[in-house]
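Hi there, hope your week has been kind to you so far. Please have a think about how the structure follows from the sequence. I've dropped the whole record in just underneath, so have a look:

_____
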Amino acid sequence: MTVQEKADKREQILQVAEQLFAEQGFDGTSVRDIAQHAGVNLAMISYYFGSKEKLLASLIEYRSQYTIGLLEELSKDEKLSPWDKMDKLVDFYVDKILTNHRFHNIMTHTYNTTRSDDIRTLITGLKLRNFEQIKKIIGDGQRKKIFRKVDIELTMGSVMGSISQLTLSRGLYCSLLRIDATDDESYIKKVSQRLKTHLKQLLHAHLDIKNEE
């Protein structure tokens, strides 16, 4: 097996594990289930990951790599204004969470229910790392006298909480917005732009230094 084939097989196992963890929960999914659905033997999963918990940790790290790279680039981009960066942040997180709602549900459920300190520490570290980049963006806008002084932690909590609410309480919002709950594409399409517009309006009103008391 070539290096590329090994990488492809590892990614395939991660994708299958993500699907099963989302559908059955971490505790409800066995390594044997993952091996069977991925079309590999148990020894291969052990070779790549060692244990089910380490497989979950690898999945979390795998899905988080792109986010930190994008946030670092966005924070350093001098061509964009602080407002442009905040708008892009909203676009990114709405698309990321709504499109990858299975992984978001795994992260939320795992963090709140896991008995593993290592997994909780991993998730906390990744979120703090991302949050530091967002703080830099807001802080830059404050230094440039574009954004007013706000509670940055709770500001981002409000944004992320809104996106999570429409992801975790999907059935409720399908009823409220009259969307077919079985149609992923329709739900994302109808909710995405509406949520982006709402969050951008909130942030512009909240951050604009012209609204400083």
About this structure: The domain at 59-211 is CATH 1.10.357.10 (Tetracycline Repressor; domain 2). The CA atoms of residues 89 and 212 lie 23 Å apart. The chain has two domains: 1-50, 59-211.
